């Protein structure tokens, strides 16, 4: 393995302090770490972790190492790495290949350096590592126990690979665990997207028209939080059932072509490509703001915006102004990258506690069972999802109701009826 590639080793002490702060707010992962330290279930596992290098991720990596794994860490987004965290992990002796502001070439070089570990387990947030392994390292794919995928975009890519018969090893769709998507995607993305937008612009939501493209769990969470701050929310959705849900949740629903002249702020949360295009930019009002909180920076057609602009300037950190021929100014946040990580801290540790608990336990499952699984995309085992929920409730001092013997009998019976 080559030496770590990070921004500044001197940032390690600051990173350690922030990692410790997050650890105190991740009690479920801490409980699993204690279990891993006792049992060493990951001994023999070599893990490449292509994730957002944040304080929460650092605590996941610590848990995997406690379980006996060797881990190489690389970033899953060029603007999401927190350089102090990368420095702290490198100071602990881990192999870390991530720094904020990577260009495209550097981004993929970092992933390939991490693959020099010759991993047998992959952790992804966006499926870039899995894609590279399949395209360029087929001999490595043949030796993999399996992998885990953290986000919706990556799961979509992996299911497409599985349908094409191209997937070479089993992968668990951690994103789809209820204790992940219902909380991380909704409450985590909802809050952190607001944080990133306000951090970059000091935008006042009250009284503004906010256009939300996509009404999956992430879109639901952001729309709910924007409405809570007094915004008038318009939802753009292609799926009739989700569009109907948005309407019954109290939002206006319409095509983007109708919403484009109305919006003060546009946020994409779809996982798809070119959601906001030239025809939409042409209709937007002066000083409209455009941001992305989906995984990749392809949801906004940035090349079209570049073609339309006669002038382009960085007016402040994470805000690029595009001046069009007619004098209108449009603002793109964080180069179209994940606004919640590029301009803020990402999801709070309390919600990532559940997501990364699912990751840790799914890695254990892959190490123990991966070699007997077919080459497909699997849900998180129900017992893992349920256990994470139980541990989280216990950490919050909450208890669930218990069925009586009579109630259990009734639920198993068909004779009793009404």
Describe the structure.
The chain has 418 residues and is α/β, with parallel strands linked by helices. Helix content is 45%, strand content 17%. Helix 3 runs parallel beside helix 16. The mean pLDDT is 97.
Summarize the structure.
With 418 residues, the chain is α/β, with parallel strands linked by helices. It has helices spanning 12-23, 27-39, 55-66, 83-91, 104-114, 128-136, 138-141, 152-163, 178-201, 217-228, 240-248, 256-259, 278-281, 302-308, 339-342, 349-369, 382-395, 405-412, and strands at residues 46-51, 70-75, 95-97, 121-124, 146-149, 171-173, 209-213, 232-236, 252-253, 265-268, 288-292, 309-316, 319-324, 329-333, 377-379.
Features of this protein?
418 residues, alpha/beta, 8-stranded mixed β-sheet, 7-stranded parallel β-sheet, 18 helices, 15 strands, globular
